[in-house]
Amino acid sequence: MICIAYSESDPVSRHAAEFVIKEYGFDEEEGRRLQDNVELLRVEGSLINAEAIDKKHFKAILFMSKHHSAAGINSFTAHSLGNWTAKAEFGGMPRALSKSSPLLMLACMSNLDSNAPTETNKVYEATHHGPLLDTPCTFIEFGGSEAAMEEHASAETLGRAAVESVRAIADETQELSHVVIGLGGNHYPLKFTKLALEKGYAFGHIMPSHSFIKDGNIWDTSMIEEAIARSDKETEFAVIDWKSFGSEQRKAVLNKLEELGIDYERV
Fold first, then answer.
1. pLDDT, average across residues 25-36
2. Separation in Å, CA 227 to CA 3, 69, 127, 200
3. In 145, 168, 195, 199, which residue has its Cα 20 to 30 A from 104's Cα atom?
4. pTM passes above 0.90
5. 90: nearest Cα among 81, 79, 99
6. What is the CATH number of the domain that holds 216?
């Protein structure tokens, strides 16, 4: 069973769930809303603190959520979960990643690209925030201005993309070319998004260049190993946003990949 999770306290999440129930006929059975191999689950409180959902032992979890945009730019996004550094300000634990689902995240981005208006941004985000889960999971989000997040049309687009994405995973129809991790770039890795949409690269965790920090005089690259380990699919290679790293930082990344026996592709 795959889960689509939502929260009543999140307007985008709530509107998306209302649309999914109405449009796809999720039937209520003994307090659960089910259709085929998918359960629509209401989470109490904030989605970023929903660690208890791990106990339900789903095959995968897709969280429908609002997206916070400091610039107020309307965007549809998808991302894996976790915290790269000692800071865990928005759920999860410091220096700990949830298990990623590269195929589910690729399905989300593909379906957002197909369903969302062409004038609205569709982009991956780097891995960030909680909850910390052992179940493979992904967030699919819409956000922008406060007014936009109260609109039903965008939430309906989000709900449709969510259902189509989990169905692709449940039916094993999602196509891909490579399972990879992304290293470098900023919080919105446009180069990685393009590779996903145009070439079918299924990204698990995406670690932005600003999350590589120094431990004393040494660049800390230990979380690369965590990104590879915390995936429900074996990582084939890393994709590096080459120019986003300084020379010393890049050298440390390449040394770590060589140590792990992981090849790389530069973009």
1. 83
2. 23, 25, 10, 19
3. 145
4. yes
5. 81
6. 3.40.50.10700
